[in-house]
Structure prediction request, 382 residues.
Amino acid sequence: MHLNFNFISSIANQYSTVFAIFFSFLLGALFSYIWFLGKNKKDMLDKKKLESYVKGINYIIEDDTDKAIEEFTETAKLDPDLIDIYISIGNLFRKKGEINRALIIHKSLLVRPHLNKQKKIEIYINIGVDYRKAGLYDRSKEYFKNALTIDPKNTLAKKLLYEVYEDSKDWENALVWHKRFAKGDEHRLAHIYTEIGKEKIKENNPDQAKKNFEKALKVYPSCVDAYVHLGDIYMNYGDMKNAYKQWEKACKIKPEFADTALNKINDISALKSVIKNLLVEFPDNIYILYFCANQLFNIEEKKKALSLYKKLSKMNVKSYSVFYKLIEIQKNSLPDFVLSFAQNNTGKSVQYTCTNCGYSTRTQFFICPKCRQWDMIRVDIL
Prediction:
């Protein structure tokens, strides 16, 4: 049999072309499938990261720090490059009071390659906050300054550095930073001058103390703390007339702090004179009425004190301490069990609360020990 080689060659070429097309199709399909698997896996990973992150956020909202750390740690395992997550984990450890763990996490981020400037600043600031929380103020300042080296205009770093100077009672440097970065905040500047004045008193330098108290009142004439301590300076000089004058001004500027100034006046006739002036000028101010009544009670002017306590009761001032004082003054006409009840319920009768963060104490303050805000104080008669 005679074979047609041209025909066979033609058929072979056709099959070769078909096979090449089929192979190309198969290879394309394989690559598509591999891409699909990769994309699907990435989508699943992204979904898991998102779910874990959202859970962490929810736990923060619920104030469940432990579970928030657990979820964020899981998110970080899924993607070790998520720097923001690590920063959050460190912050949560700081919130729990585990400062060392917070520092380890935050400091480890600094060695990562390809950190942009903003991330470096954020990490430096968080390390500074960690050290501040630990009370290591010098280290805290160092890291805030590192952030400012990168961006001298960073407002958060400037604010935190300034606050650390206050925390560490480095008032001279606080003054320098205030003049550079916090112009216009006069009441805070006044407190800084006042604190410097107090330091000068401790150093037995009353003249410099007086100058600083006067500077405080020049920039912020309503600084009660400056008036109170300026009165101390005049008393130290033996100028009692001016001392009483400063303390009376303090009562008038901020009646809710009147007890601080009134307690300074040891001369009974001078105290009576100041009380009289205050009651004439503030006949219906509950703080003036209450603190003046307490002073009159202490110097055995019980009848006058009683009239002020009764006036407070008529003004619907709901105060246990006013009630107890009324019982004490009228004890001769009351049953013994009522008097016994009153005597067993004495104590500090004023509460000071920060209106910014809610911190509350029976001890007077000008700067909140918790949130470090100045003059955010509500005074409650208990």
Remarks:
- Residues 348-382 form one domain.
- The longest helix spans residues 5-61.
